[in-house]
Amino acid sequence: MSKCFNGLYCIHLELTSRCNKNCWMCGRRKIDSEYPEIAMNYDDMDFYLVKRIGEQLPGGVVVQFHNNGEPLLYPNLEKQSICSR
User: What are phi and psi of 52, to 5 degrees?
Assistant: First the structure.
């Protein structure tokens, strides 16, 4: 299978959309308060999907594990760090 990410420099992976904080500068606070049904559906990215993405990335690509979720809440973080290059 050929690599599909040729020339890629950096990707952002949101390992989990869950967050245990309530930071004043985060736009997510407003979304959570106005749309509680969205907050109820926060979840974790499937470990095997993350692993598969990692297998397709060429060496040297920066992978950032943050976005709207707190990456330290990801239940497979230890396994994920082992799979990372």
Answer: -65, -40
